[in-house]
Amino acid sequence: MRTDPSRSLHETPGMPGVSPSPVEGVRQGWAVSSRGPTAWRLSSLLGRVGEVSGSRDTATLTLAMRLVREAQRQGEPVAWITPTESTFYPPDVASAIDLDALVVVRAPEARTAARAADLLVRSGAFGLVVMDLGANARMPSPVQARLVGLARKHHSAVVCLTEKESSRPSVGSLISIRAEASRAKHEQGRFLCEARVLKDKRHGPGLRHEEICHGPDGLH
Length: 220
Prior knowledge:
This protein is α/β, with parallel strands linked by helices. It has five helices and eleven strands. The chain has helices at residues 42-45, 60-73, 90-93, 110-122, 141-154; strands spanning 19-21, 31-35, 48-54, 78-83, 86-88, 102-107, 128-135, 157-163, 177-185, 190-200, 208-214.
């Protein structure tokens, strides 16, 4: 648990006038089961800047929320940096995470999101900072270097969420681990959500993490 869980940048999720985007594969009960190597967990990302990306039938938000839930269960404060025009749909995750304890910051572009992440990680108060960057996002090398150094210093995880195919490059060369998220129908309103590690500077690519999840209402 962090010694200074500052929440001065708190903003309530789902504010009026912001279009919510549903979280893929999330509902009450969350994961029904998991299988395969535990490649996608908070302990594997601490001290690092990572990225999870996806295009069609993605489970990007589901896998990111999995990390949020894990961090909160460990008593770690979490910050979520989201675009100003959209955000995750709070009712889809309310049964799985503590929304009241989640710090949400709205940033109009990737550069602003990176500056917000710098301040949050630099405070030493957050175990996990998620940046929802969307499509076509890039981060300058100096910004990446600062985030990498701060994540190591404070033993925090910084995770970038992006919309892209696996063949496209990461948001920056200093990304330590990148996973591709995917979702496929399973049975009885359940989905197979998978994280396939494309890049890992510590252990090499190839590991996978799979979970069987309930779909939210309307995604059956």
